[in-house]
Amino acid sequence: MRLSTVILPIHRWSEGGREVWQRAEELGFHAAYTYDHLSWRSFRDGPWFGAVPTLTAAAAATSRMRLGTLVTSPNFRHPVTLAKELISLDDISGGRITLGIGAGGVGFDATALLGEGQEPWRPRERADRFGEFVPLLDQLLTQDVVSYEGTHYAAREVRNIPGCVQRPRLPFAVAATGPRGLALAARYGQAWVTTGDPKIADTGTPAESVAAIARQIEGLGAACAETGRDVAELDKILLTGFTPDRNRPLESVDAFVDFAGAHAALGIDEIVLHWPIPDSDFAADLAVFEKIASEGLAQLGAV
Fold first, then answer.
1. What is the pLDDT of residues 206-255, one digit of tens each?
2. Does residue 81 surpass a pLDDT of 70?
3. Which of 3, 64, 200, 207 is deepest in the core (most CB within 10 A)?
């Protein structure tokens, strides 16, 4: 199992932002991700920086750790411009970028670009757009010249030279739980991302959550079988903080080991912990967090 972190883009680079990303690398995290939103939930009225510039700065400040988004969505991104930014990021980082990508949802990102009288995309339209977005992005990152005309997106003789450092392109980590999203993960993903089952996040138990994630993995396996792909080829990533456990895995190393062990048994390959943020949903003791980062996987392996 690998252990990673997600660092919300709330830190001024000149006031500790650089140090947080560098500390994540020092602690040995496999990857450090950030959210790709215009603003998000309770953080809307505070500092919130762009994901791509933040990752560019992080790439220059680190040398080994992988970097990426959890997750980017079509809510305010277009495949053509996103591809150019990703190719640039992959070059600057020396081939350390993973694109976490999902269909998006409701919230500030879904309404920020709407004109008067326009309505946010309904779930079906989000799924339709995502179903076009991912294949087009795959083309843009693997081919020097792309022309495409779809229902929601177009690309006319778009050049993306020299392409990604990582070949044939940087990896996609596809966040999905429904049949259409899982099919995209099976076809285009190098990894699959879950946050658990949102239907039981507030009312379920940890055991019910583990069972729900097991069913999601079964669905991913079925989607892979339909495309003739071995589900073992996909890394399986759990972004923590949204299951009924919430932040309990960060209360102690033992709590983390119990949590990680239960999910490793399901086939989860990578667990992502939120970097602690005081006075927020992601509040945790930084000293305990760092101890988990440095000792947690070793203790898990000893169980």
1. 999 999 999 999 999 999 999 999 999 999 999 999 999 999 999 999 99
2. yes
3. 3
Q: Extract the tokens encoding 244.
A: 């009924």
Section 24-28 average pLDDT = 98
Nearest to 282 by CA among 250, 255, 254: 250
Cis peptide before 244 (omega within 30 of 0): no
- Which residues are CB-neighbours of 203 under 8 A, at least 6 positions away? 244
Any idea what DSSP says for residue 30? S
| Rounded (10°) CA dihedral 109, 72, 133, 162 | 130
Stated length of the chain: 303
Where does the pLDDT of residue 302 fall: very low under 50, low under 70, confident under 90, or very high at 90 and above? confident
Question: Do 126 and 105 touch, CB atoms closer than 8 A?
Answer: yes
Q: How do the residues of the chain divide into helix, strand and coil, expressed in percent and rounded to 5?
A: 45, 15, 40
Give φ, ψ of 141 to 5 degrees: -90, -10
Q: In the structure encoding, which two tokens stand for residue 276, read together?
A: 């602690």
- Phi first, then psi: give them for residue 265, nearest 5 degrees: -65, -25
Q: What is the DSSP string of 122-169?
A: PHHHHHHHHHHHHHHHHHHHH-SEEEEE-SS-EEEEEE--S--SSSS-
pLDDT over 70 percentage in the chain: 100
Q: CA-to-CA distance for 11 and 302, rounded, in angstroms?
A: 36
Give dist(CA 222, CA 25) in Å, integer: 36
DSSP character at residue 6: E
| Confidence tier at 257 by pLDDT (50, 70, 90) | very high
Measure the CA dihedral 126/128/133/134, to 10°.
100
Paired with 6 in beta bridges are 33, 274
